[in-house]
């Protein structure tokens, strides 16, 4: 029998059980933090049943190895009972160790927390913030290794480990100049996106973006950068525009060299005219020239150059203006006062070569005196310079570089609109994109169908995560970004972007529950709330006031709240209060007996037209589409799109397989009307069935399906929704079985419908979608209405082609 308080030997035997099984970095905001985190799955094995009371010697060794952890002994990072009653205690220690390792590696403070929704006591997930992804990943693994060593009583080699971690951190960090520019951009509120592949950075988004590699920008002249490799050429070019440069002459023999040196005056240097030989050190007299000549001259030729005397300065010029001045000798700390005429000379030098950012080397007895008065000379000019090392000068230089890239009045970003929710995301995204296109701007948007620029498909696929967002935000033509953002991408990878101008949350209903630790609708709402939580100050959160979970998100955002509601005036008290206090509200309102779409704020009232006249609402019968229209209109309205353009956009957005593929596509056939949709959860299917029940029809039928990763109760609920239909066909698609046996999904849905008392004659099951479609085509008759929940929309449309209206 195992002792409840094991001796150290037993803990040592369990040390190997502590391991980091899987780690992934979440970039951008996530459920766990506004900043990026490393999400690590930790396995504990037998350690899961041990706590601090079982490991006093381990704690002593840990605090001896990392003394800074001692003050955490009585202040845990989590106060949940489960943590201290089971294996969470070890994970809490791992978080603290990892954060301390990152701190000692030189990284700024970061957040760390446990994720308490894991399925077993011996498996946990920790979320740990990071400054550099590589550091975060390595630190958590190193932390686990150190804890294993300490459990075994081994030397964890802290000093050596930290040295390795510091080197890894420095390798992963951008170069000093790049870091300074990133900080300068942040001070101006300009988005920064790093590309680890080529060590470049993107400032701004879409059409406003600028790209840099160090201080080389996307506007640095290749011709100029190539020219400055030859400083002799640079001096000739500068001399031609009146910039004072060192005098020099070509010598074709030692005798020539001595004569030229006497004429120019010592000290001089010899520069080879060709070959790989380096220029000489300063030569103070004729004897030094004689010794250096055979070592430096090329084919008995060389350039003799006068070396000016005085203080050597480095002047950084950015965007045609002096950004900073520093002494070339780091030991000299005296301040530099640069005379305005001298600044103009340095600016002329950079401009003459054609460099947007340049380092001008100057030697002068006194920088506060005009160069022309004291013999000062420009001795060199270089592209891609490092910013000064002095902190104050570094900041000034970096600020000047960013200001040169974005002068006063220049746009630094584009509108970013993010849409999330359980249902309606894709249609709302497409409608918002359509409304903004009418303003004349180029719109990039992401959907479950793919990534688009205007109406051009760039990348096909279910792309609603960070990869797709990056395609849009990094495209140099994007003027407005509209990003459908699904739960899966948020949980798996984070948002991948920092902030949005408008967040739209459609609704939160049961869907994908039981996956990735999301077991309840409330937990799902926490995931969706990441989007309004990412709204920048001055932005807007457009929320569904009829959904309590969505309405509650108003407390999670820094943006101004804009509500939409499909309820009539007076039916939602929260809406009335919001409106009374000057808030933004969109809803249908009755005017002369007709529903009209209205947006209100204070005394302003925008009438965007009759609901029944908006094609997407199908005469007002598709109530879930009214919700989509309200959300999209509000998102455009808060971004300044005019009432007239919004109204026109709602009229010209006509649903079809081309405009809204797989989203309520109505297909007229010779045997009845088909409604094609991609709905795969109870709420979406309920909306479709309500729409069909409101339509005139001889008979109403439906082909229902759902992915196999839905819970059994969810599948049964979908089946129950078909109660009252004349025929319900439960079908599957092999791609979406997701681990279930053929026929299992259809059987469970059918069982749900049977439980309502529906007759067997009204229930049919198929294991393949084409067979189900073929069957309904044989039983359809004119006047029938059929809903097809399509798994493969294109294939279903091809199958219906022979019976399309007008086709023989």
Q: Can you describe what's shown?
A:
With 808 residues, the protein is an alpha/beta fold. It folds into five domains: 8-172, no CATH class; 186-240 and 314-408, D-amino Acid Aminotransferase, Chain A, domain 1; 247-306, ATP-grasp fold, A domain (Dna Ligase, domain 1, 2-Layer Sandwich), CATH 3.30.1490; 416-584 and 621-650, 3-Layer(aba) Sandwich (UDP-N-acetylmuramoyl-L-alanine:D-glutamate ligase); 665-803, Protein-Tyrosine Phosphatase, Chain A (Alpha-Beta Complex). Helix content is 35%, strand content 23%. It has 28 helices and 32 strands. The strands form six sheets. The chain has an eleven-stranded mixed beta sheet, with helices on both faces. A six-stranded mixed beta sheet has the order 27-28-32-29-30-31, with helices on both faces. It has a four-stranded antiparallel beta sheet with strand order 1-2-4-3, with helices on both faces. Helix 10 crosses helix 11 (286-296), helix 15 crosses helix 22 and helix 27 packs parallel to helix 28 (793-800). Residues 1-5 and 73-85 have low confidence and may be disordered.
């Amino acid at each position: 029998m195992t002792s409840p308080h094991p001796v150290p030997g037993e803990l040592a035997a369990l040390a190997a059980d502590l391991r980091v099984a899987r780690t992934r970095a979440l970039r951008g905001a996530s459920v766990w933090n506004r900043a990026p985190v490393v999400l690590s799955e930790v396995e504990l094995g037998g350690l899961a049943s041990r706590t601090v009371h079982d490991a006093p010697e381990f704690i002593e060794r840990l605090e001896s190895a990392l003394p800074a952890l001692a003050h955490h002994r009585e202040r845990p990072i989590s106060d949940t009972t489960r943590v201290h009653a089971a294996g969470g205690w070890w994970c809490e220690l791992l978080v603290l160790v990892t954060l301390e390792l990152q701190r000692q590696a030189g990284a700024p403070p970061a957040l760390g927390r446990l994720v308490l929704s894991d399925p077993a006591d011996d498996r946990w997930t920790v979320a740990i913030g990071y400054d550099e992804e590589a550091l975060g990943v390595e630190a958590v693994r190193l932390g686990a290794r150190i804890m294993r060593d300490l459990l075994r009583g081994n030397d964890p080699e802290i000093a050596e480990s930290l040295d390795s971690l510091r080197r890894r951190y420095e390798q992963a960090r951008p170069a000093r100049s790049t870091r300074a520019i990133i900080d300068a951009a942040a001070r101006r509120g300009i988005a920064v996106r790093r590309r680890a592949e080529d060590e470049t950075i993107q400032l701004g988004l879409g059409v406003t973006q600028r790209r840099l590699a160090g201080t080389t920008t996307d506007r640095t002249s290749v011709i100029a950068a190539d020219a400055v490799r030859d400083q002799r050429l640079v001096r000739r070019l500068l001399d031609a525009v009146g910039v004072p440069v060192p005098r020099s002459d070509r010598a074709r023999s030692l005798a020539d060299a001595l004569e030229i040196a006497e004429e120019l005056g010592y000290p001089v240097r010899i520069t080879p005219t060709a070959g790989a030989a380096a220029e000489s050190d300063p030569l103070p007299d004729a004897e030094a020239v004689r010794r250096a000549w055979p070592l430096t001259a090329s084919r008995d030729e060389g350039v003799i150059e006068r070396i000016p005397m005085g203080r050597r300065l480095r002047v950084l010029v950015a965007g045609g203006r002096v950004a900073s001045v520093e002494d070339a000798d780091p030991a000299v700390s005296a301040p530099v006062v640069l005379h305005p005429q001298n600044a103009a000379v340095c600016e002329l030098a950079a401009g003459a070569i054609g460099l947007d950012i340049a380092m001008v080397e100057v030697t002068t007895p006194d920088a506060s005196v005009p160069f022309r008065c004291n013999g000062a000379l420009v001795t060199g000019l270089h592209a891609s310079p490092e910013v000064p090392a002095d902190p104050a000068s570094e900041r000034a230089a970096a600020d000047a570089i960013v200001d040169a890239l974005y002068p006063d009045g220049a746009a630094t970003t584009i509108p970013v609109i993010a849409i999330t929710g359980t249902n309606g995301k894709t249609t709302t995204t497409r409608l918002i994109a359509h409304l903004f296109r009418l303003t004349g701007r180029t719109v990039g948007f992401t959907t479950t169908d793919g990534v688009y620029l205007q109406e051009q498909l760039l990348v096909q696929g279910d792309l609603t995560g960070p990869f797709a967002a990056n395609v849009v935000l990094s495209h140099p033509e994007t003027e407005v970004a509209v990003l459908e953002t699904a739960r899966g991408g948020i949980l798996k990878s984070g948002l991948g972007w920092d902030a949005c101008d408008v967040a739209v949350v459609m609704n939160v209903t049961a869907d994908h529950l039981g996956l990735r630790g999301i077991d309840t609708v409330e937990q799902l709402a926490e995931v969706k709330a990441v989007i309004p939580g990412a709204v920048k100050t001055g932005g807007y959160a457009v929320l569904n006031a009829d959904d309590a979970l969505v309405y509650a998100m108003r407390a999670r955002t820094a943006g101004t709240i804009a509500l939409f509601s499909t309820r009539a005036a007076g039916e939602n008290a929260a809406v009335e209060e919001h409106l009374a206090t000057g808030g933004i509200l969109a809803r249908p309102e009755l005017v002369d007996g007709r529903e009209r779409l209205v947006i209100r704020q204070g005394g302003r009232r925008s009438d965007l037209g009759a609901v029944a006249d908006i094609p997407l609402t199908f005469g007002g019968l598709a109530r879930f589409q009214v919700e989509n229209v309200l959300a999209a209109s509000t998102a455009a309205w808060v971004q300044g799109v005019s009432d007239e353009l919004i109204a026109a956009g709602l009229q010209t957005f006509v649903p079809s397989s081309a405009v809204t593929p797989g989203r309520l596509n109505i297909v007229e056939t010779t045997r009845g009307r088909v409604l094609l949709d991609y709905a795969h959860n109870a709420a979406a299917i309920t909306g479709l069935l309500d729409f069909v029940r409101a339509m005139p029809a001889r008979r109403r039928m439906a082909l229902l399906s759902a992915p196999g990763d839905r819970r059994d109760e969810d599948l049964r609920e979908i089946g129950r929704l078909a109660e009252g239909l004349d025929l319900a066909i439960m079908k599957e698609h092999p791609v979406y079985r997701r681990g279930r046996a053929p026929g299992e999904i259809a059987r469970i849905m059918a069982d749900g419908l049977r439980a309502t008392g529906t007759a067997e004659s009204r229930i049919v099951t198929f294991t393949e979608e084409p067979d189900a479609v073929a069957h309904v085509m044989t039983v359809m008759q004119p006047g029938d209405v059929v809903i097809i929940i399509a798994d493969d929309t294109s294939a279903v449309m091809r199958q219906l082609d022979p019976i399309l209206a007008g086709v023989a």
